[in-house]
Design a protein that fits this description.
- It is a single chain.
- This protein has 212 residues and is an alpha+beta fold.
- Helix 1 crosses helix 3.
- The protein is 18% helix and 24% strand.
- The strands form two sheets. It has a six-stranded antiparallel beta sheet with strand order 6-7-1-10-9-8, with no helix packed on it. A four-stranded antiparallel beta sheet has the order 2-3-5-4.
- It is a multi-pass membrane protein.
- Keywords: Cell inner membrane, Cell membrane, Kinase, Membrane, Phosphotransferase system, Sugar transport, Transferase, Transmembrane, Transmembrane helix, Transport.
- Its EC number is 2.7.1.199.
Length: 212
Amino acid sequence: MVMKLMVMTLTLIKTDSGESATESLARRYIGAIGGSANLTSIDACITRLRLNVNDSAQVNEAVAKRLGASGVIRLNKQSVQIIVGTQAESIASAMKKVLTKGPVAAAATSSAPAEPDVKPQAVLNSEKQVIATLLAPVSGEVVALDDVPDEAFASKAVGDGLAIKPSDKWVVAPIAGTLVKIFNTNHAFCLETDNGVEIVVHMGAGYRGAGR
């Protein structure tokens, strides 16, 4: 899976509350999810928060998008994914830290338009008109994103791109750049090109096992 993302860099300055900017953002995401009372577990993939909740209907998509999320996917009543870009792991860790400090209230429901409070962490190619020439990271059959059995990719919520059904076991970088992130299960990595474009290569659709 190859995608282009323009990603916000979260600073580590302390706010008036003594929390870092990432922790402050994480606290607001917890509120968007319906507060700590609605949240049962927190996990992350390279570009998305994977959350278990008591009731996915309580997740406030408008608030999440104001915080910079590019999409919210409700897999079922208890499972939600929020697309936040390659800061997903940092935000998930900060959410866990915030929860150790005490309960977090649900965000207030608002009828106001979902104008973002911060620059989105993940922005679709069509919105940014970012162009880069990529090589196939693996040999195989090209598959349209629409046919990928993972709604986050098929809906292009995590960015545009394509999928490849591999015929070889070797995966290489699709473009020259700096390796800025490897997901802890080794199933995804992110490269940054010289002109600041971030390319995500994700091995496996809906992959949840240990990396190989």
